[in-house]
Amino acid sequence: xxxxxxxxxxxxxxxxxxxxxxxxxxxxxxxxxxxxxxxxxxxxxxxxxxxxxxxxxxxxxxxxxxxxxxxxxxxxxxxxxxxxxxxxxxxxx
Length: 93
Known about the structure:
This protein is an all-alpha fold. Helix 1 packs antiparallel against helix 4. The chain has helices spanning about 5-15, 30-35, 45-60, 65-85. The protein is about 60% helix and about 0% strand. It has 4 helices and no strands. The two termini are about 25 Å apart.
């Protein structure tokens, strides 16, 4: 699965603006493209900040999630990307 597909899966599952019950599953595609293009390679914290900034920019402060609410999705994305690259990390826990 490529990074775009991973981010799309996580963001759509989260549905941060509660839009998917009213719209199609491509609703967050512009945001997902921005998140993927800025995808940091090192930390969950940077990824959570990117997600927060993208949602803030795209939804103009109309109830976008706080940065704290972005951490679970950032962690989920990071785990899906990096556990696939380094499968032995799964066995460390």
